[in-house]
Amino acid sequence: MDSTGTNFAPGTGATAIDTPDAPDAPDLVTVPTRQGLEAVDIIRRGAGLAAPGVGPVLHDGSGGTLGFLVPPGTADAWDMPGSACTQTNGRGMRFGDAASPTAGGTGWLLPPEAVGPVTDPAVLRAALGEAARLIEAADNCR
Description:
Elements: E1 27-32, H1 33-46, E2 57-59, E3 65-70, E4 84-87, E5 107-110, H2 112-115, H3 121-140
Antiparallel strand pairs: 1-3, 1-4, 2-3, 2-5
């Protein structure tokens, strides 16, 4: 699956997904923080070799989950245990603004202006699988 950009609207600094039900609004994959942070590291280490890099990543206020923005339509076929993928339909998503997302306590771990396009779902799926194996191995060494 191809990665798509965040579609910054010319001259406004905001994206085309400022309104609900926008057709190009990204989906959101949420995972436990520990697995998500490992996946970010895995993707960043592999970026540029043959895989695209990590896109924007949200963290919740409690620190329990990370959310990866992925191309629209990813939620239709997402089937990775231990994670969830939901359609955002553009709700609460304004890129290019200085403010963080509006959901209570939610903020950017990797903001859109710092990383660019959304994360490729195939790359994310592979990184999450590798992260789960690394975490399991580390936990079994204790």
